[in-house]
Amino acid sequence: MTVPLPPPNRIYLLRHAEAAWAEPGQRDFDRPLNEKGFGDAEIIADKAADKGYRPDLLISSTALRCRDTADAVYRAMGLTLEVRYVDALYNATVDTYLEIIDAQDEAAVMLVGHNPTMEQALEALIGHEAMVSALPGGFPTAGLAVVDYDASATAWRLTDFVVV
């Protein structure tokens, strides 16, 4: 596993909001957000926008619950936000998440994805102790990690963790 170096200088890791249970015969991939999830996605997107957390590029899993969450961010950030949907983020390994981040040239990139991979990506960036200290209960749905590169320490640091 290779941890990315800048660019980007800021990484936003957003776990999709709470999803509905699968209906009979429905694929996991096609599960939308539930009512609480839709509300939480709007709240977390608005909180991020209010704090000035604006990515240059949003990359989302193509799973419906991630697209629903990304749509809320798009609405909160304005119509100029570039959004890309990437199939590889669904059922991906942490290496895939980190490779996708590392391949970007933008200053600030947001991934909208799934657990446990989202939590593993945060842990790979900031280290086990910092992750457990910041998120003792794990990475919640609609949780947004703001991770900045500290050039003086040549390391990634968790700057903020925004929850509903």
Automatic annotation (TrEMBL):
<dbReference type="InterPro" id="IPR029033">
    <property type="entry name" value="His_PPase_superfam"/>
</dbReference>
<dbReference type="Pfam" id="PF00300">
    <property type="entry name" value="His_Phos_1"/>
</dbReference>
<protein>
    <submittedName>
        <fullName>Phosphohistidine phosphatase</fullName>
        <ecNumber>3.1.3.-</ecNumber>
    </submittedName>
</protein>
<keyword id="KW-0378">Hydrolase</keyword>
<dbReference type="InterPro" id="IPR013078">
    <property type="entry name" value="His_Pase_superF_clade-1"/>
</dbReference>
<dbReference type="GO" id="GO:0016787">
    <property type="term" value="F:hydrolase activity"/>
</dbReference>
